[in-house]
Amino acid sequence: xxxxxxxxxxxxxxxxxxxxxxxxxxxxxxxxxxxxxxxxxxxxxxxxxxxxxxxxxxxxxxxxxxxxxxxxxxxxxxxxxxxxxxxxxxxxxxxxxxxxxxxxxxxxxxxxxxxxxxxxxxxxxxxxxxxxxxxxxxxxxxxxxxxxxxxxxxxxx
Length: 157
Known about the structure:
Strand order of the largest sheet: 2-3-1-4
Strand content: 15-25%
Structural class: alpha+beta
Mean pLDDT: 84
Order of helices and strands: HEHEEHEHHH
Protein name: Methanogenesis marker 6 protein
Shape: elongated
CATH topology: Alpha-Beta Plaits
Helix content: 40-55%
Radius of gyration: 25 Å
Distance between the termini: 81 Å
Low-confidence stretches: none
Number of strands: 4
CATH architecture: 2-Layer Sandwich
């Protein structure tokens, strides 16, 4: 039973988004992906690639691409297949692609994540940060009272 589920999972058609940090070009990555496997569909995008195919084939392509530059190439599984009417812009009447803004935020922090991965591989240890102390509730109420009394005095003048 477990083997059947694993086989079905490997045969499932998925799409993974391959996002590049700041040094690779999507066209170079696409060429490398085509060299690895002809059993997947590769779409070049402004942020990297979308690789569609059987899970085992897609995972293999991603693994091989990450070998090119493990600190700058990232991937995640796409939530909905291309053209899915629940997410398709044509069906929704245009506008930005759902999830685009999230992907943009993720792209902006990838250079920092890349630097962190390099530091970890070089043996850097995390620096413990002090835990900020919460403001006492009674002190917070005092501050509110002080500020509201200042505003009340200012309006009387």
